[in-house]
Design goal:
The structure holds 2 protein chains of 2 kinds.
Chain A (H helix, E strand, L loop, with lengths): L1 E8 L4 H14 L3 E6 L9 E9 L14 E4 L19 E5 L10 H4 L7 E4 L1 H8 L6 H12 L4 H11 L2 H27 L1
Helix pairs in contact in A: 1-4, 1-5, 3-4, 3-6, 4-5, 4-6, 5-6
Chain B lengths: L1 E5 H11 L4 E4 L6 H13 L5 E4 L3 H13 L4 E5 L1 H6 L1 H9 L5 E6 L13 H5 L6 E4 L3 H18 L3 E6 L7 E5 L3 H7 L26 H30 L7 E4 L6 E5 L3 H14 L4 E6 L1 E3 L3 H7 L6 E6 L9 H9 L7 E6 L9 H12 L6 E3 L4 H13 L6 H9 L8
Helix pairs in contact in B: 1-2, 1-7, 3-5, 7-9, 10-13, 11-12, 14-15
Classes of the chains: A alpha/beta, B alpha/beta.
Chain lengths: 193, 418
């Protein structure tokens, strides 16, 4: 089982992102489960969501405390002590930011992990370019596909097209593709280095 | 057809396929997505039903009662305080023998106000005369609704389908959505036993005095006993039509050679089963027994499932009965009266959204195996918080409101895992 935890703020599409990831995994014939953290749903408040992916039915309904991957939709949450809690040494981390881990104050944190599994991607900026709104969910999923290979980019795009339509679907899909390419290039650079 | 779908949405699709003629609802978290989806189907013309926005939960069920009495298939949904607010009508629907189906998206009851999941709401109405079915998964939630209409209408008894709020209602999971034609074949048109019809006028709801009240109540008891035969029969029919095992009375899991059996209702059973498998792998003989039908209480089926000797039974209570402790435990003790070889443990768990984790369950069952479990415990109780508040109350008379004191101790923030 592969477990993902999303952190963001109310209104950023944190729950939608987890649902889209589940949909993408489902379309590849896998079992998936997505659910929100059930907090008070206020605009701007810290929000979590979870997604599990497995080859067999998923029975548990407990929250994800030991994620295989963390997706941080809003880097202003990084000061929270528990934000990165439970990420194992083999884990993946994707942060929506235009800054480096050094600039984010995570230079110490990233040591000890597989360096090519931890990346930042300017998801809000990519969304602004392609969608016209700084909603980072779709590009982060594109980046997640490139980072982990857990789902294919085509499945992510198909899930986006299933949820949205017209220019919103097109913009989100474009942003996801751009983020996929960005992360793929970054990983290649890290692997070659 | 297989779909990746939110639990509420899956239930709405199942209810729509049952062709309810009247749907009335008053929104309350975490039930709202179900009736939202149904209202959208009615508005779009995909579902031919009267959808009534009412002014309260009391009105929601009262409208369902009126509709059902005229021979319409009626549906509503609620949770928590909403269920309490309609409580008088809950008893009336059962007393009148009207086969309404209602989803209860299980949620705690205040105060303190809490929107999260436990079973306090449905448990508070357990003896109102409704059947209560508890879903373990979203698939079972949608399947149970289809079965519920059939059971309700066969017996002329209302049915509550209980599904854990958020854990199921808001979870997107894989579900097999049946073909509408299959549901039509399984669920015949509603043929009411009693109906308000101007062509053949009758009154429903007569006042009944001491001369006959006991007999009317006895017949309610008898109907419940009959339900114990009907529920598994309908589950078998459902299996034959849809090729899936859903519903029924109880569900044993690896109980055959078990020495410790966890007994629970609802979605926590998934986490319990994972824990059972883990502990089995390490050699601990653990099993689980899911209670799908809680009312009527399936005493005989439980006796048959608990057929070995010297079991330790660990009952997970998702509601607290202050002053006695465990609600399910009390029923279980009655069902197993005379079985002096059994040790029964009550564990209050998962109140107000506190996550029941496999980690905590594992520790609990290892403790039980070592004969170290107390007869009555709270899972993951933060004793430090409790002690601090008790100390405050001891130190001064004007110690203030307990919930606020405890939140202050916690320095609570909005982001919490589990």
């Amino acid at each position: 089982m592969f477990q993902v935890r999303f952190h963001g703020r109310g209104g950023q599409g944190v729950v939608t992102a987890a649902e889209l990831l589940a949909e993408a995994a489902f379309s590849e014939g896998r079992h998936a489960q997505a659910f929100p953290s059930f907090g008070s749903e206020r605009m701007g408040a810290p929000v979590m969501s979870f997604c599990r992916i497995d080859d067999r039915p998923i029975r548990t309904h407990e929250p994800v405390t030991e994620p295989d991957a963390l997706i941080i939709q809003d880097p202003t949450l990084l000061h929270q002590a528990e934000l990165l809690a439970g990420l194992g040494r083999e884990g993946y981390l994707l942060i929506n930011s235009a800054r480096s881990f050094d600039e984010l104050g995570l230079d110490e944190f990233v040591t000890g992990y597989h360096r090519d599994r931890l990346l930042v991607v300017p998801a809000s900026a990519l969304a602004l370019t392609h969608l016209g709104r700084p909603l980072p969910g779709a590009p982060l999923l594109g980046g997640f596909a490139a980072l982990t290979g857990m789902v294919g980019l085509d499945s992510v795009v198909a899930a986006i097209n299933g949820k949205f339509s017209g220019p919103v679907a097109d913009g989100n899909a474009e942003a996801a593709r751009a983020a996929f390419d960005f992360v793929a290039d970054e990983r290649k650079a890290l692997t070659d280095a | 057809m297989l779909k990746q779908i939110e639990g509420s949405r899956a239930v709405a699709e199942a209810v729509a396929m049952c062709r309810p003629e009247v749907i009335c609802a008053y929104p309350i978290t975490p039930q709202t997505h179900i009736v939202e989806a149904l209202s959208a189907m009615v508005k779009k013309g995909d579902l031919n039903a009267e959808f009534l926005n009412v002014e309260s939960e009391f009105a929601a069920l009262s409208v369902a009662i009126g509709a059902s009495a005229t021979g319409a298939r009626a549906y509503t949904a609620t949770a928590s305080q909403g269920l309490l607010y309609m409580s008088e009508a809950v008893y009336n629907a059962a007393g009148l023998g009207l086969p309404i189906v209602m989803t209860v998206a299980n949620r705690a009851i205040g105060a303190p106000i809490n929107i999260w999941n436990d079973h306090s709401d449905a448990m508070s109405q357990r003896d109102a005369g409704w059947l209560q079915l508890y879903a373990e998964t979203n698939q079972e939630a949608l399947d149970l609704h289809i079965q519920a209409f059939k059971i309700a209408e066969l017996l002329s008894v209302p049915v509550m389908v209980c599904m854990d709020g958020f854990l199921l209602t808001h979870a997107s999971e894989r579900a097999d959505i049946p073909d509408p034609g299959q549901v039509d074949a399984f669920l015949p048109r509603y043929d009411p036993r009693q109906v308000l019809d101007p062509a053949e006028p009758v009154s429903i709801g007569a006042m009944v005095g001491p001369e006959a009240f006991t007999e009317v109540r006895y017949l309610a008891y008898e109907r419940m006993q009959r339900a114990l035969q009907v529920i598994p029969a309908i589950a078998a029919e459902f299996d034959a039509e849809f090729g899936r095992s859903s519903g029924g009375l109880v569900r044993p899991y690896r109980t055959d050679d078990a020495e410790i059996v966890v007994i629970a209702l609802g979605s926590v059973l998934g986490t319990v089963k994972d824990t059972v498998d883990e502990l089995r792998a390490s050699g601990l003989p653990v099993g689980a027994l899911g209670i799908t039908t809680y009312r009527p209480f399936p005493a005989q089926a439980i006796r048959e499932a608990i057929n070995g000797a010297n079991y330790q039974l660990v009952v997970l209570e998702r509601a607290l009965a202050p002053g006695t402790g465990g609600i399910v435990t009390a029923d279980l003790r009655l069902a197993l009266a005379g079985r002096h070889d059994l040790d029964i443990f009550t564990v209050v768990a998962g109140l107000g959204g506190r996550a029941v984790t496999s980690k905590s369950l594992r520790a609990l069952l290892i403790k039980a195996a070592a004969d170290e479990l107390e007869p009555f415990t709270f899972l993951d109780l933060d004793t430090g918080l409790v002690e601090a508040e008790l100390a405050r109350m001891h130190a001064t008379r004007r110690s203030g409101p307990t919930p606020e004191n405890i939140l202050r101790d916690l320095g609570i923030t909005a982001s919490r895992i589990g």
